[in-house]
Design a protein that fits this description.
Helix 3 (about 55-70) runs antiparallel to helix 17 (about 345-370). This protein is an all-alpha fold. It folds into two domains: about 10-230, no CATH class; about 320-425, no CATH class. It has helices at about 10, 15-45, 55-70, 75-90, 100-120, 125-135, 140-145, 150-155, 160-165, 170-180, 205-210, 225-230, 255-275, 280-285, 295-300, 320-340, 345-370, 375-390, 400-420.
Amino acid sequence: MVRPDGSVLASLSWKPWVDAMITPIVYAIPVFLMLILIEALVGWRAGAGIYRVQDAVTSLSLGILSQIVAVFDKFFVIGIYVIVWKYFRFMSLPATSILVWISALLMYDFCYYWNHRLGHEVNVLWAAHVVHHSSEDYNLSTALRQTASGFLISWIFYMPLALLGFPPRVFVIAGLVDLLYQFWVHTELVPHVAWLDRVLVMPSNHRVHHGRNDWCLDRNYGGIFMFWDVLFGTYTPERPDDPVIYGTLTPLASYDPLWGNLKVYADIWRRLRLHDRFLDRLGVLFARPGWQSQLEAAKSPAPPAKIPMNRYDPPARADIKLYGMASLAFSTLLLVQFLLRVPQLALASQIGFGGLITFRLWALSRLWTGQKSALVMEMLATIVPLGFTALGLWFVPAGAGARLVAALALAMAIIVLPRLRGALPTTGEEQ
């Protein structure tokens, strides 16, 4: 085992691996969006109805939020890995060997299987992972509905790769391959492929994983390879005679990306405060989702779990939906600019830039349901970045052309946004 021979933090160099993770994601964003548009068009022409605007925009908003947080959580994901690999590895594996790369991908997916499985079986881990399952639709946008808090614990599952000596570059790229592969399996348009279904994660077996039917729960955890599920007894094929119903047994029932990340944590905190016994508190944290203590069962026994009859789908006028898509597109452009410029920004600017994008996503979620303050928030979240860019005061320098475009967009926003007031739902209340 390699032991520390000096100051860990002084000699540690893990920032290049952070940049190595961010850059491919930036270039993948337009590819993801193009494929989402193609899937939506194909589904529309086939009359499949696989997309709903508000749900898809919420999925993408959660994806944007997860990428903003990812800028700040890389010490957990990569920094700790590099420390363990540099000072505590049992052996040194060469990054020039093809066998090392193949075994790294297999080992990463094995670790992912257990990270994913326990993310369904342990309540405090489910609090993070539930975000990905909160959509009641199943399409490519669902793939991007990612948690912002998974980094808190998930890094632990990948430490075996560091101890075994897989270099950080190999670890990062294996993780990216595993992550990017999972994008395409979130679709209803690809049918069951029997001869691959027990070997690879495919759209068919992953549809099962996203189902809330009894026979779908806690099944098919693999990231790339389905043979882990076959080996450990969690594989279940899709049933043609029993359509999968997507979502969770306790629906999110909200378009708010912040609440989407915090809802189960809030429930855990409420339940922890209810209990005095240490073992009950351990149960709240580490038992399966849905577990109740004797105290909870006596006070308010949980009703039998059943699938909700209707999906969460508050009405919204077509012009609000159109504006919501335009607002999301603007937030996506800001995210790309943010990710590309992160290495040059001071920490305070990173927090300010990321915070403003987050505020935009939150404001849009309130616009969907007609919250009283939604329009003011949306105007503020739109005017500030456009106005600061036009004045040359934005977080990153802007040329004359960009400033002119920002000024024109600002004028359009000032004209268009007030006109949306009459299009907002009238049932929204402040939350």
